[in-house]
Design goal:
The complex is a heterodimer of chains A (121) and B (232).
Chain A (H helix, E strand, L loop, with lengths): L8 H14 L12 H8 L3 H13 L3 E4 L3 E4 L3 H25 L4 H16 L1
Antiparallel strand pairs in A: 1-2
Chain B lengths: L2 E12 L2 E12 L3 E5 L6 H8 L7 E6 L2 E2 L2 H6 E4 L11 H11 L5 H10 L13 H13 L5 E5 L7 H13 L6 E6 L2 H4 L5 E6 L2 E7 H8 L3 H10 L1
Parallel strand pairs in B: 3-8, 3-9, 6-7, 7-8
Antiparallel strand pairs in B: 1-2, 1-4, 4-5, 9-10
Helix pairs in contact in B: 4-5, 5-6
Classes of the chains: A mainly alpha (121), B alpha/beta (232).
């Protein structure tokens, strides 16, 4: 994995795991890779991985069982909310950028509808 | 947390030129710390003082609360930025040399890392490529159960495959009981492994801190901060 945007690495790791949750690659109750395994795989300092896991736990998306590891939450709503939140963030970013191009809201609507039609084909 | 390294007002002059100019720096135990700077910034001078190969002009350097000397040498495992093995040796000879020389040398660890690096014991050192040489040197250095590992430019000039093996070996052998001090100017390749970074410019510390906090604060990766600091 390339870490190339401007966010701290632990946040990029959280985002990676979040997208795997939303996509169902990690399901409720699944065990996350151990800090060590993940650290080796991503070539990232283990303490950075640890911090990412801790923050995910604080957000209620994973839980830790002593001596067993870190697991994905079994709360289906939490994953659903996460998906909604991630979609909102993308859309926020989209609006922010497209407004910079000076495109009015009606025009944006038109572009999106056209795009949706294209994708259907 | 305890400091494994404490440096106070350290200055090193070569005649009139100050290679290190009144540096003060603490390194916490259990951390992987990167000393970043271009060639000639004072990285190697600093490391040579910590390993007892050079004497400072003024100031103090402590490792594990002791002045640099016999004790600190016994707990520091050092990877120099040049080759330190004789050409006529085989890898086996180098292994025996280290085993005899360092009481904290772990034979099993050596076998394990050597295997990971895909090196054969019977091979002569003069036949090794630059990448293989660097892999062997690192294998020897990481096979010691040291309190502090000092790695001077561990990936300089090696090909991408060897570089990945070297980075993996460093991660695999890092544990929170030991500390690592790594110098590099190849920031992009190393930055994700570093917890704290120290930017050294013309013998001065111009920026230091936790890598993640700096990314957060500046909204940039360490490599970009590096370019900003050193292009001025």
């Amino acid at each position: 994995m390339e870490f190339n945007n401007n966010l701290p690495i632990y946040i990029q790791i959280m985002n990676l795991i979040k997208s795997k949750m939303v996509l169902g690659e990690f399901n409720g109750g699944d065990k996350l890779p151990s800090v060590r395994e993940f650290s080796k795989e991503l070539k990232v300092n283990p303490n950075t991985i640890q911090r990412g896991y801790q923050e995910l736990e604080r957000e209620g998306l994973v839980f830790t069982q002593r001596g067993m590891g870190t697991f994905v939450t079994q709360d289906v709503d939490a994953i659903k909310n996460l998906k909604k939140k991630m979609a909102d963030e993308l859309i926020d970013g989209f609006f922010k950028e497209i407004k910079k191009l000076g495109i009015e809201i009606d025009e944006i609507k038109k572009i999106i509808s056209e795009r949706i039609e294209e994708d259907k084909e | 947390m305890k400091n494994i390294v404490e440096i106070k007002d350290l200055t090193k002059k070569y005649f009139n030129k100050k290679a290190l100019d009144n540096i003060t720096l603490n390194i916490e135990e259990g951390k992987v710390v990167g000393i970043l700077g271009p060639n000639g910034s004072g990285k190697t001078t600093l490391i040579k003082i910590l390993t007892g190969l050079l004497r400072q002009t003024s100031g103090e350097a402590f490792i594990d609360e002791q002045k640099v000397g016999v004790y600190t040498k016994s707990i520091v495992s050092y990877l120099p930025d040049r080759n330190f093995l004789y050409k006529w040796m085989t890898i086996e000879d180098a292994f025996n040399l280290f085993k005899d020389f360092y009481s904290d040398f772990d034979e099993n660890k050596f076998e394990e890392i050597l295997n990971f690096m895909e090196l054969e014991k019977s091979v002569k050192i003069e036949t090794l490529s630059k990448g293989m040489h660097e892999k062997l040197n690192l294998t020897l250095v990481l096979s010691r159960n040291a309190k502090l590992y000092i790695l001077d430019e561990p990936i300089a000039g090696v090909d991408p495959v060897a570089r990945d093996q070297i980075l993996d070996a460093i991660i695999n052998n890092y544990n929170d009981k030991s500390s690592m001090l790594i110098t590099t100017h190849l920031v992009r390749d190393m930055e994700n492994m570093l917890e704290d970074v120290v930017f050294l410019k013309d013998g001065n510390i111009v920026l230091t801190g936790n890598a993640e906090s700096l990314r957060e604060e500046k909204g940039k990766q360490i490599d970009d901060i590096y370019k900003e600091v050193f292009s001025q």
